[in-house]
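Hey team,

Filing this mostly as a record. A colleague (T.K.) asked me to run one chain through the structure pipeline before their review meeting, and I want the input and output archived in the tracker in case anyone asks later how it was produced. No errors, nothing strange. Just documentation.

Input sequence:
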Amino acid sequence: MQSLKDKAIFLSFDDWHVKEWIEFLPVLDKYGIKATFYIAFHHQGKRRVFPEDIPLIKRLHDEGHTIGCHTWHHLNSKNMIAKWGNKKYIQKEILPCLEALGGLQVQHFSYPYGPYSAESNVCLYGRFDTLRGVTANGKLVFYSPSQIKSHRAFNATDVRNIELNSKQYFDAMRTSDGAVFLYAHNPMHKWMFETFIKLFEFAAESGIQFLPMSVFDGRRRKDKQ
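Output structure:
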């Protein structure tokens, strides 16, 4: 595992905003940040990620970012696993996503909309090293180094909450040890872009590192040993 200091941020981007993510790359490069991008291919019956986007996704991967699965149709995983069962869910929502990503080794998963259950975790633990949900009510959850080294499921906080109360969130990150998980969607919206600059400047001044989910690669195999 990449060295984990007392404080760290795991930043991820969800959904299908591939071109905007590529546009945002120079900002990530400027601050030396590697992030995770969870890909969903459809939403509300419409195709969102197309074959011509795959080389752009591979570019993100080749530049050191992590690519994760966010399902094929962006349906609520908890509900669909309960309705379909594990086998049908994997066949309809996971395998097409992995196949479309063109041979990339995709080892991390993000729940669409955030909800999950013990049953959905069991279904997906066999396919992925980590699973990521979302926190309730925008609360920051800090994971200790020991939890980071042992857990496979984590909850992330929407970056939009930082825009609403950046002082509260920055104070919490400054004074609390451990890692936090943050997620966003399209970073190129004007107010989101400005929020990211504030976040990156704060982290640089505070000595907080950013890590991709690839630091957890192989955790599934270790759990089986």
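Quick notes for T.K.: The two ends are 17 Å apart (CA to CA). The mean pLDDT is 93.
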